[in-house]
Design goal:
With about 350 residues, this protein is an alpha/beta fold. The protein has a domain of about 220 residues: Spore Coat Polysaccharide Biosynthesis Protein SpsA, Chain A (Alpha-Beta Complex). It has 11 helices and 14 strands. Strands 1, 2, 3, 4, 5, 6, 11, 12 and 13 form a 9-stranded mixed sheet that branches. The relative contact order is 0.14.
């Protein structure tokens, strides 16, 4: 009796990223998973990325968008044309290890309710440490602030084996996101209003609102450069983070809870705005203000995803019942291991 190996498609969304493709695509090609297709979705690049791929990697599937639709719209359009049992949405600036796929697929195949997962994400520049975008699995506090095992705000831990147990989390990083195709289709893919940043948290929250699970797989490890598209100091990134966080709460919290949480979150944001002003970062302060203005002006805008209205099967595992802002900045709890695990749902 032959064993059926699920088909996996690694899908890399590229926008003017020839350098990253040249540096990191060889590690993806060296993956040992047997039933694998590697797809590069080009998001309207103006460099010679596509020509480079055709010349050097003719076996790779190339799918093209007619323009840059952002991370969310770009992936939505590319994945409509990819057939597989599993998608892996992989950033172009990630180096993978040869056996990085097998442990995650084994974990996801073990439970029908596991919809999405991510490997351990470490820094390419400092391989002893976790990387900001995902680390060892994502969590969220009651006011919508995301954090990770191995990374709370700007404090990033060294990997000393302290997060070596695979477990259910609240969100999986979009830098290396594994998802079952049927659940991607059922939840409607990414919400394109997000454009970039926090779109994977919204996706995972919608999956959890369907009663499904999101996992961290400790047995798989990848290395992320980070900041390849938008620098951490970019005011547009500040705008997206603050705007998208409010949209995230509005979409996924029950209505009455959102009425309480969002005004409190806006107060926290105003504190951040004042801090930016005091630090002389006026463009970032203005970005926070614009984020609030956009949120209010588009309060009743409909999204291309409507999971909140379809499901009431909430799985809140991985939500932190306290304020991570107060714990980090006031109580000086810098590491995930310092948080009381009884404060997680």
């Amino acid at each position: 009796m032959s064993i059926i190996i699920p088909k996996v498609a690694v899908v890399i969304l590229n926008w003017n990223g020839k350098k990253y493709l040249a540096d990191f695509l060889p590690s993806v090609i060296a993956s040992t998973y047997q039933n694998l297709e590697i797809v590069v979705g080009d998001n309207g690049s103006s460099d010679d990325s596509v020509q480079f791929l055709k010349a050097h990697y003719p076996s790779i599937t190339i799918l093209k968008n007619d323009q840059n639709y952002g991370f969310t719209g770009g992936y939505n359009r590319i994945l409509e044309r990819v057939e597989a049992d599993y998608y892996i949405l992989l950033n172009s600036d990630i180096e993978v290890t040869p056996c990085w796929i097998e442990p995650v697929i084994r974990l996801m195949e073990s439970d029908e309710l596991i919809a999405a997962a991510a490997p351990k994400i470490k820094s390419f520049k400092q391989k002893t440490h976790f990387e900001h975008a995902g680390a060892a699995g994502g969590f969220i506090d009651k006011f919508g602030y995301p954090f990770c095992e191995g990374r709370i705000f700007y404090d990033i831990e060294a990997d000393l084996g302290q997060y070596q147990v695979s477990k259910e989390v609240f969100w999986a990083s979009g830098a290396a996101l594994f998802i079952k195709k049927r659940y991607w289709d059922e939840c409607g893919g990414f919400d394109e209003r997000f454009f970039a940043h926090m779109e994977e948290i919204d996706l995972c929250w919608r999956l959890k609102n369907m009663g499904l699970k999101v996992m961290y797989c400790a047995e798989s490890e990848v290395y992320h450069v980070g900041g390849g598209t938008l620098d951490a100091e970019n005011p547009f990134k500040t705008y997206l983070n603050f705007r998208n966080n409010l949209v995230l709460l509005k979409k996924n919290l029950p209505f009455l809870r959102a009425l309480v949480i969002i005004p409190i979150r806006i107060c926290f944001d105003l504190m951040a705005l004042i801090r930016f002003m005091c630090e002389g970062k006026r463009k970032d302060a203005w970005a926070v203000s614009r984020a609030h203005q956009n949120f209010v002006l588009n309060l009743f805008q409909k999204s291309n995803t409507s999971i909140k209205s379809k499901y009431r099967n909430y799985n809140l595992s991985g939500m932190y019942k306290r304020s991570i802002v107060l714990d980090f900045f006031v109580r000086h709890k810098k590491h995930f291991t310092e948080l009381d695990q009884e404060d997680f749902l």
